[in-house]
Amino acid sequence: MNNTSDKSTGRLVAGYLAEMIRVVVISLAIILPIRYFLIQPFYVKGASMEPNFYDHEYLIIDELSYRFREPERGDIVVFRYPRDPRQYFIKRVIGLPGETVVVSRGQVTVINGENFAGLALDENDYLSDGVITAGDKRVTLLAGEYYLLGDNRASSLDSRIFGPVSRELIVGRVWVRGWPIDKLSIFETPLYQDDSGKLRPEPR
Q: Is the pTM of this model over 0.70?
């Protein structure tokens, strides 16, 4: 009698373990591709993107969108630091491939095929009042290069210092802020407008 009971218990335990293994394998088969190819978590470190992102905030990075389109002006991106690819930075896309970016007298101006005289970017949507962009730079971006700046211009190590960032170094765009929970947000690309309120042309 005991032998029969022991065998029955053994079969139940084996069945339970087999089911657990199956659930774990299926879960990993679903989660790992999402984690490594579609989205990944990112912790903010430092003050370079204040007041929009603060130290220790938890973000979800969309790695899928840039498989179908290129980064756009205003996108917030996570990328590998050009001088040490082991480090990850978070900045905002300001200049696109083929454009000339001019930083002068506290203002950022973009020159491109649609705007030969240059357009002074209106960055009021994401910069704090009174923020100026220090520096005296004029950079013409090559194919596959982007000019990235932090929103906290006075405390940001960005393209004004390390230059343009190659497309292959960009990991993805910031999609969701998941923590702190009271600041849960989904981020969209801001629209840049001229004085008349019309959308400024964007090169494609």
A: yes
Mean pLDDT calculated for residue range 145-156: 91
Active site residue 155: no
When divided into structural domains, the chain yields a total of 2
Strands 58-62 and 100-104: unpaired
27, 45, 48, 196: which is the annotated catalytic residue? 48
Q: Is residue 201 part of a domain?
A: no
Under 8 Å CB-to-CB from 91, ≥6 apart: which residues? 48, 49, 76, 77, 79, 148, 149, 150, 156, 158, 159
Q: Is residue 171 part of a domain?
A: yes
Regarding whether 101 and 76 lie in a shared domain, the answer is yes
Domain enclosing residue 112, as ranges: 44-186
48 catalytic, yes or no? yes
Residue-level length of the chain: 204
* Residues 4, 84 within the same domain: no
**What is the arithmetic mean of pLDDT over 65-87?**
89
